[in-house]
Write a structure and sequence with these properties.
Length: 271
């Protein structure tokens, strides 16, 4: 059996310290959180960064500073976001690819996002895929809707993304498709049979349910403050590492082995 990958999305673009005062914001705080998450079982860091005011940014210099700080503290695989935050242009969002990270998220379509929406037209999706090819970055097909899986298949058919394929199913976003076991099963059955996938349940109830769903369907797990700031109902998580530690325990209790960063690099054929 393949090993289970745990991704930690420690900051995100929309989460604030009003949601959870333990949210890491500075390069040092993000690097410390990444190292703690890696120590407790995470092998991929899904990376958003913040500017000096704590606001989301795709500035390449900020990403560079954060990545260098993370690298000083641990060997976790770094997956940068190209989704950025609501309202950013595609040019802004793709800036971190210049740093040639090992992985990056590739939003595969437009979707509702709470009271806003994320715009990803087909030409924008193709441009992002082409740049990931140019910088030899392994793409994660981020799918907020079932139609996004069909878009990913188009990119594969056009030769824009090469195997091995990795998907990220983003479920339970307000205004988007819900998370439940039936919905997850439909997504899993639509992707290429040899593809890897990670499920992200947004919000406390969906996030924990998605951990179990990933194990049942044979996929990978994502936790972290980007997706959920609670440990139990009404109780804020003390850290990202606390969420990773629980996911790792559930994984081990189910008899699954947890992937290390080295395992991820081999499984996903990273540079």
């Amino acid at each position: 059996m393949k090993k289970t990958i745990i991704t930690c999305a420690i900051t995100g673009a929309e989460t604030t310290r009003q949601h959870n005062p333990n949210l890491p914001l500075t390069p040092e705080e993000i690097a410390d959180a990444a190292a703690e998450a890696c120590l407790t079982g995470a092998s991929i860091l899904h990376l958003h960064v913040r500017d000096a005011n704590g606001e989301p940014t795709q500035d390449v210099d900020v990403f560079k500073a954060v990545i260098e700080e993370v690298r000083r503290k641990c060997d976790i695989v770094i997956e940068v976001t190209t989704g950025g935050a609501v309202g950013m242009t595609l040019e802004e969002r793709l800036q971190p690819l210049q740093l040639e990270p090992e992985m990056a998220s590739l939003d595969c379509g437009t979707c509702n996002f709470g009271d806003d929406y994320l715009v990803n037209t087909l030409p924008m999706v193709r441009e992002a895929a082409e740049q990931m090819n140019r910088y030899k970055v392994r793409a994660t097909f981020e799918c907020f809707d079932l139609s996004h899986v069909d878009t990913s298949m188009l990119l594969i058919k056009e030769g824009l993304i090469k195997p091995p394929f990795h998907y990220g199913f983003v479920l339970n976003v307000p205004g988007g498709i819900r998370y439940d076991a039936e919905t997850l099963g439909i997504f899993v059955n639509r992707i290429p049979k040899d593809a890897f996938w990670t499920v992200m349940g947004i919000g406390g109830k969906a996030n924990l349910a998605a951990v179990y769903g990933a194990i049942v369907y044979g996929g990978f797990i994502r936790v972290g403050f980007e997706d959920n700031v609670y440990f139990t109902k009404g109780v804020l998580a003390e850290s990202n590492a606390q969420l990773v530690e629980r996911a790792a325990k559930i994984t081990k209790d189910a008899g699954c082995d947890i992937a290390t960063p080295s395992d991820v690099r081999q499984m996903l054929s990273l540079r």
